[in-house]
Automatic annotation (TrEMBL):
Function: Is required not only for elongation of protein synthesis but also for the initiation of all mRNA translation through initiator tRNA(fMet) aminoacylation.
Cofactor (UniProt): Zn(2+)
All residue ranges annotated as the Methionyl/Leucyl tRNA synthetase domain in the record: 4-405
Enzyme class: ligase
The name this protein goes by in its record: Methionine--tRNA ligase
EC number(s) on file: 6.1.1.10
Predominant location: cytoplasm
Assembly with partners or alone: Monomer.
Amino acid sequence: MARHLITSALPYINGIKHLGNMVGSMLPADVYGRYMRQRGHEVLYICATDEHGTPAELAAKDAGQSVDAYCGEQHDAQKAIYDGFHLRFDHFGRSSSQQNVELTQHFARKLHENGFIEERAIRQVYSIADERFLPDRYIVGTCPHCGYDKARGDQCENCTRVLDPTDLIDARSAISGSSDLEVRETKHLFLLQSALQGEVEQWIDDSSEDWPTLASSIARKWLTEGLQDRAITRDLEWGVPVPADVWPELAAEGKVFYVWFDAPIEYIASTKEWADADPANRDWKSWWYEADDVRYTEFMAKDNVPFHSVMFPATELGTREPWKKVDFLKAFNWLTYYGGKFSTSQRRGIFTDAALELLPADYWRYFLIANAPESDDTSFTWELFSSSVNKDLADTLGNFVNRVLSFSRKRFGDEVPAGAAAGEAEAKLGEQIAELLAEYEGHMEALQFRKAAAALRALWSAGNSYLEEKAPWLEIKTDQEAAALTLRTAMNLIHLYAIVSEPFIPAAAKAMRGAFALDGDTAAWVTADEARALASVPAGTAFTVPPVLFAKITEDDLAAYRERFGAAE
């Protein structure tokens, strides 16, 4: 089987993430990773907190903490939430790790040796009130493109345009709020992306044919506009230091690498963190260096695509070393909240900690993946959420499991009944399940999550249709053997559902599978023949009725959610 390396956009350390962040990177990566493991592939899912940059310094200052202490606390808080969502990272690292310091400096040295880093004198904004040069994110003002009045000096959060601090209208310091700013000369390192444009274009041509249109179009847009040389250092106290052996003057001035230079390197560094925890059994280089046998899939929202489809590949190419580059970049549009943008900085929308306070993770996991913003933006509404949970999870799946097991226990006891031999209805059902399973597998392997969710839902619906057709509550009045067959077949469907639903709803899948006392039940997946046979849970197997898998969301619940979070902007 193949080796699959999976990464998702690094969540920034500053603040708990909202549902848009979850569905735009980490959750689909987890779903895909779980599925690929079940299919027998070797999978390594790597992520980390992105800890450098201005917002971390400002947030630590507001919290009255050192940046290191603040980032450590926030890393643990985020990891606890991701554990609550059942995200199965192989390692969840930190970009402030020593491994990332060493690898970032290594990349910089190699780029310098190959002539792709240049020291330049530039004119930069200096705050008289703060007595310091201001990095781009320390400057806020009005975006010249869309008029948003809280744009940062590196990028406008509203229209996503990349900016320089001097582009801003009515610029002011994010530290003091002072507009007493002037432009002075200072030195920084520049990555000569313009010199690498041809190589990046060739790599995109060779690599992106199968990428989603969203990802490839963003990459090509940047290339069409022309790659610009970009400063990769900043005047900050927190970050990967510029190595003094190469740039002693800049190191003495305390320059650090720009977060967008070191953050993607953390994918490699986080893998090294993972390997360093068990060096006798783990080899980080085999995943990243001369790793021709690795299939690398990356997940992220569209605002992160330029940095990972163009800027980081340019960095890797410029080292002249055989670093692994992404094979498939799965990009997502926005998840909005009633048509308005989720915003971490403005606390607009539902955040992951609040989501877990309301309902278990499986409710959110299923809804988000079933409505993933793949081809277009998706608007979260409480009405859509409750409808999806009630119809798909509570009624279609949960009610099927409960009524089959409860009815069978009531009429036949705590063991799977034997009943008659499978007949025409069961053969027809088996063919239908095998066909739907193949459809589900195809969509999962193509990373088409909404279609995969629809196929999974169809699998659940097939069981309900079979149950309604056979009506064991009527059969038992005239033919107990026929009713027992129906219930045994339905129980086999429950076991099948437990296996194939695990990537979407792992907690419910575990409960369904645990309902049956099957010795040595280690099946990772269901073959087409097993789906047709529906015989993995034999007669005589003891079972229990698990607690209700999914409770319905009531009108009173909806009213409470709307009052707490609002129903629109």
